[in-house]
Write a structure and sequence with these properties.
By secondary structure, the protein is α+β, with helices and mostly antiparallel strands. It has 7 helices and 7 strands. The two termini are 21 Å apart.
Length: 208
């Protein structure tokens, strides 16, 4: 059975070099050689974390191995539109498109850039927990006025497609490579709740 995981924000990671190395290695393991325009290089990520250190929800094993992460990036309305029109390249997002959390009063839009969970942890609610960690983080960010405006993402895998179905995040188009783009306006600033998968009665009977 996989070890119990520890969940925290990327801003709590003391060794950003190790975090970047672990992220890139996990992405290549799960998604293959998708190119630096989507993955981003080391220097790119170092600048990203310096500009917005809180952008990841991270799950690590007690031995330090990265078990998974979700990357929710706060972006401007203009860059949200870039995602919706299918032109986004996750390894080439300009810093000017990122809305840092520290002290900024600018409304922002969440772009779920990437999600990665090791195969041995799939089906164990790790993705759900990472998402709920983000929901809680965003609720704590809202102060005085609603600042979160929408949630957008691009589907890269069947696992991602099933996850967005659980969120009820509708497909609103396709990117330049034919991948589905999902998005939803969030007028009250609240991220959608994740749905509990339906269990077939026969499965329930076996479990009982």
């Amino acid at each position: 059975m996989p070890a119990t995981l520890q969940y925290h924000r990327s801003s709590d990671e003391t060794d950003k070099v190790a975090l970047i190395r672990d992220m890139l290695a996990l992405d290549r393991e799960l998604y293959g050689d998708i190119g630096e325009d989507h993955l981003g290089g080391f220097d790119y990520w170092r600048e990203r974390f310096a500009h917005c250190p809180e952008s990841l929800s991270v799950a690590r094993r007690p031995d330090g191995q990265l078990a998974g992460y979700f990357q929710f990036l706060p972006v401007t309305a203009d860059y949200r539109d870039v995602v919706l029109t299918g032109d986004a390249r996750d390894g080439q997002i300009p810093l000017a498109a990122i809305v840092p959390y520290g002290g900024s009063r600018e409304p922002y839009h969440l772009y779920l850039c990437s999600m990665a969970v090791r195969p041995e942890y799939r089906g164990r609610s790790v993705a759900s927990r990472l998402y709920r960690e983000e929901v809680q983080f965003q609720r704590l960010r809202q102060s005085g006025s609603v600042r979160l405006r929408s949630l957008v993402s691009v589907v890269w895998s069947p696992c991602g497609a099933r996850f967005f179905a659980r969120l009820g995040l509708p497909c609103v188009g396709f990117d330049n490579d034919g991948r589905p783009v999902h998005g939803r306006e969030l007028p009250d600033g609240e991220m959608p709740e994740i749905r509990v998968p339906a269990v077939h009665p026969a499965v329930m009977a076996v479990a009982a």
